[in-house]
Structure prediction request, 227 residues.
Amino acid sequence: MKLKAIVFDLDSTLIQSHVDFVTMKKHMIKLLEEHGHPKNTLSPTDQTTVQIMEEAEKEWRRQNKPEQEQKQIWEKITVYMNQGEIEALEGLEEIPGANKTIHDLKEKGFRLAILTRSHHEYAIQALKKTGMLECFELILGRNETPLPKPYKEALEYTLQRMGLNRDEAIMIGDHQIDYDSAKNYGCGFIGVATGHRGLRSWENETPPTALLESVADLPEYLDENCE
Prediction:
């Protein structure tokens, strides 16, 4: 089928921000340990926020932790995450060429969406600051999909909201989590080499077959490779 839509990751794909994820995860881990999680079993450097919370939820089930307590912990963690992201807005910048790329793709008739694990207001403000907000018909942030990336439900829900199937869209991202979300749903994927972790962004340091230096190269790549 003809390519109709492009779903973008946000951080390190379209923008560069300086969210202190390590400190954020340290706060998360400290809070979880205060509520009974075994100490020194979670890592702020080797695990993503999703992985940390998956381990926390497993432990909660093992401990039969009351749902109300789980909810309260989640709410406090969400505050940590939201605060860290909002604080990073001041120094945020677009990936060079991202604004032009997004406007060019919009003018060519592609439908554009954002699928991020950052929270919604951060995504809105980041796109507004970089002049790209008006180009996106759908922006989905943290807790706005049934499951987050890398689960297939994240991208599946995004395309359902747009009235599209997996053959009509591709996903663009800088990290294995984005790649896995696309693979798990059976959707096309193009990687960009602008992640903070470089090749370590990819599993076993093996990037996807389609890997661009940055999103600035996307229009030319699509012209050459897509209908």
Q: What stands out?
A: The chain has two domains: 5-17+93-225, 21-89. The mean pLDDT is 93.
